[in-house]
Amino acid sequence: MHLLIYFYLICTLTDVMVNGREHFSREGRFLRKILNDELEYGDGYGTKWINFPDDEGALHFINMTLDIEAPLSRNMLDNIEYRLYIWNHTGLYIMLNELAEPTDKSNLKLTSQILLSNLPLKVITHGWRSSADSAGVMSVKNAYLETKKSIVITVDWSITADNFLYPWVANETKAIGARIATFLDNLNYRYNISGKEMHLIGHSLGAHVMGNAGSRTKIRISRVTGLDPARPYFEYPPQEDSGKLDSTDAEFVDVIHTCAGLLGFQEPIGTADFYPNNGIAPQPGCDHILKFFEACSHSRSFFYFSESIKYPKSFPAHQCQSWIEFVENRCGQNGYMGESVNRNTTGKYFLRTNAFEPFGKLAA
C-alpha cells in the first residue's frame, strides 16, 4: 500500500512540476499528506478507517468496514425539528411539525403570514454529530435572513445524527430524507408553496439527506445544493442503493467540493460541480492547522456558500476538465459558484478563493 502511494506521488509530482510551481505546491502538499497519514496512522487510513469531523470540526474515528442496517425507531424519526425563522429576528423561530403546522397553536397567524408571503423557500440542514445550531447552518440561515428575500427553515435531525456509529447514520439518511419529503409535501399542500420555490441545502451527510428529500417528494424540487457531500459509505467504499446525492434529485443540483477524496466526494455528482482551490484539502487558510486541516476544509463549503448569499458574484469560476487546465487558462465558459449560480451551468468548474474572509475574490 505504501509503495503504491509512493509511486503515485512521484508520478503526479513529476507531472505537476512541468505545469508550474504553484500547482506543484498544492498537489504536492495534498499527496504528501496522504502518504504521511498512512505512515503516521497506519495502513488502511482512508480505506478501512478515517477520522471524520462533525460540523464543529471535532474529529471522530470511523470504522469503514462495518455493516450496520438496524432501522431507525419511530421515536427518532418523530424527533426531527423544523424551525421556521421569523424575519428581523435571526434567533427567533416557530417550531413546525411534520404536517407543517406550528406546534404552538398561538403561532398559527404568524406562521401563515410568513409561509404565504410568496417568497422562495430555503431549507437548510447539518451533517453527522451536529445540529441545526451549528456554526455552518447558522451562517447560511443568517445570511438569508439578512437579505429579507427568503423564507428560511432549518431542519434538525440531531437525535439520529449524534450517534457515534457513522455507518449506521449514513445508512439512515434515506429514512430522514423521506420524512423531510413528507414535510415539504405538506408545505405545498397547506401553503401552496410550489416545488419551483424550494431550495434544499445540506452539508456532508446532510447533502445526501436533502438529495433523498428532493427525490422522494410528490412535487419536483427546484434546487438542491450539496456542500462537500460526505464520501465515506457513499463514494468509498461504494454501497448498493446508498441514496447518495445526484443530479436527478432536483431540477438543478449544484455541489461545492472542499475536501474531495478524503471527507467529501471527489467525482462530480451534480448538474454543476464546483472545485474551489481544486476542491481538495487543505483549503487556503486551513493549512496551518496541521493534521486537522481536513475538518477545516470540509466545513469551508458552508462558509463559501453563506458568503455567496451576501455577495452574489464574489466567486467567479471557470468550466474546465481539470485543475491543470484551470492553472494554464485552458477553460471554457465562466460562471459563479454559490447562491447566484446560473441554472444553465453544467459540468465541472474551478476557482480560487482567499485564505480568510472575505473568501470570494470579488467580494464587495
Automatic annotation (TrEMBL):
InterPro entries for the chain: AB_hydrolase_fold, Lipase, Lipase_N, TAG_lipase
GO biological process: lipid catabolic process
A GO cellular-component term linked to this record: extracellular space
Major place of residence: secreted
Entries under Gene3D superfamilies matching the protein: alpha/beta hydrolase (3.40.50.1820)
The Lipase domain, residue ranges: 117-359
UniProt signal peptide: 1-20
Compartment annotation: Secreted
GO molecular function: lipase activity
Keywords: Secreted, Signal
Keyword Chaperone: no
Protein family: Belongs to the AB hydrolase superfamily. Lipase family.
Protein name (Swiss-Prot/TrEMBL): Lipase domain-containing protein
Source organism of the structure: Chrysodeixis includens (Soybean looper)
Phylogenetic placement of the source organism: Eukaryota, Metazoa, Ecdysozoa, Arthropoda, Hexapoda
